[in-house]
Every structure is written in C-alpha cells, then in structure tokens.
Amino acid sequence: MMIKSRRSFLKVAGIAAIGMGAAPVMNLAASEPHGSAQPVISKNEEALHAKRWGMVIDTSKLNEEVAEAVREACHKAHNVPDFTMTPDPEKYPGTRPFRDGQDIKWIWPEQFHYAFPDKEDEFLAEKFHHLPFLVTCNHCKNAPCVQACPTQATFKREDGIVLMDFHRCIGCRFCMAACPYGARSFNFRDPRPFIEETVPGFPTRSKGVVEKCNLCAERLAKGEQPHCVEASKGAIVVGDLEDPESEIRGLLKEHYTIRRKQELGTEPSVYYIV
C-alpha cells in the first residue's frame, strides 16, 4: 500500500511539473475548490479590490512594541498555534509543548542581516542593526511556491494574493523548499491543542499541513483592512500596486524602498521604506 501511494504521489508530482504551462488554468479552478478550507466569502459591494495587492512597511514607524502587536493581532485572528505553550491538560491530557524550533509564523520581526542578506554592508547605519523588520509572505508576482506545488494547494489569485487551500495540501513541503523567504510553516503535529483561544471565523489547520499569510483576504472581501495594518499604527499600508493614484503608489514615489532578495526575479509585493 505504501509503494502504491508513493507511486501515485510521484505520478501527480510529475504531471504537475510537466504541466507548468497550464498552471493558470488549474489555479483558476483551485481558487474556489470544493470543500475548501478557506473561509466562505460572499460577494460584497463594500469589498476592497485591486489589480495587484501590495504592502509597504515604513521601518521608521516600527519598534519592538508595534512589531509584537502586529504579530499578535495576525496570529490570534488566524488561529496560528504556539507550540511552546502547554495545552489544557483536561482537554488534551499528555500533550506536551514542542520546543525544537518548529514554530508557525505568518508575520514576525526579523533582524536586518537575516531579512536582507544581500544588502549587508560593512558600514551599515547603526539604526538598522536594532530595527525590527517585519517579514511575511511576499505574495510574489512570480511566485515559485505556486509552480512547485503538485496539488495546486498553493495558488495565486488574479489580484496577486497567494493563498493556501488547506484541504488540498498533502504536506510534501515542495512550496517551502521553493520559497526563498522562509515565509511558510509546516504543522509537524496537530496545531489545535496549541491555540489558546480559537477564533471561529477562520479555519484551524491539521497535522501535516503548510500555512502562511493570506493578506487577510477574508477581511478585504468584507471591505476591511488586514489585521496587521490596523495594529501597525500607520507603519503598514496595503493597496493596489497597479493604481497610480493609490496611497501605496504615493508612498513608493515619495520614499526610497527596498525589497527582499529582489535579484531572484520573484517580484515581491512587499516594500520597505528605509
């Protein structure tokens, strides 16, 4: 049975690799999958739209307190587990914390030399050594994770948001290997016991599933800003990169910005004002 399952998986992976050129068609079908683990989203006249969503992070407005508030708001709203916490012994007897670094992260503060290894300089301004640079999924224009996924569990919408269909994920972690930003996490065990208070409006995941930032697609569909934007005190702006009149384009015109590992050709949609 194990050999048969492995052969079936390799067959699917091989077909996916050969059919990369057909990815856009398959992605369209995967954007509204039957039994999707994504929140049920209905059309709303107040929904926020963009030809290509992007994010600008103003590092001058970030400090450790703001960065932690952003991380906490995002993780709490999306039921991101904390494997270092001790689960409720009555509900999950015998379940112990997971302390070997296999944590789940959607958005988190990182040091400059880790976030931008290609921009490290011997005489780098001292302030950059102490700033918390918030990093997350870059929702790349040329997303390698989408091409690497053999089941289309990872797919990109027409508006540029890269999403996960948790039900389709088979845990192969090809997308994690393809992502050059370390923006994806894998659930090595059932994450549900490690969620302090489950938010009913967003699905929980299961063991063996990859997860990441979804740019709060469920909130944009309701006309609301992402949780990170609301918690950032003006440090994060999300908008339409294709609209010359949008706030985000105004910021890009006014300030010098950098992107992570831009030389790789992935075209990240997250910009940093420095």
Automatic annotation (TrEMBL):
Q: Which GO terms describe its cellular component?
A: cell envelope
Localization of this protein:
Cell envelope
Q: Entry's Pfam families?
A: Fer4_11
Q: How does it assemble?
A: Heterodimer of a large and a small subunit.
Name of the protein described by the UniProt record: Fe-S-cluster-containing hydrogenase subunit
Entries under CDD domains matching the protein: PsrB
A molecular function (GO) held by this record is: 4 iron, 4 sulfur cluster binding
- Alphabetical UniProt keywords: 4Fe-4S, Iron, Iron-sulfur, Metal-binding, Signal
Residue ranges occupied by any 4Fe-4S ferredoxin-type domain in the UniProt entry: 160-189
Which first-to-last residue range defines the signal peptide? 1-29
Naturally occurring in which organism (per UniProt) = Desulfobacter postgatei 2ac9
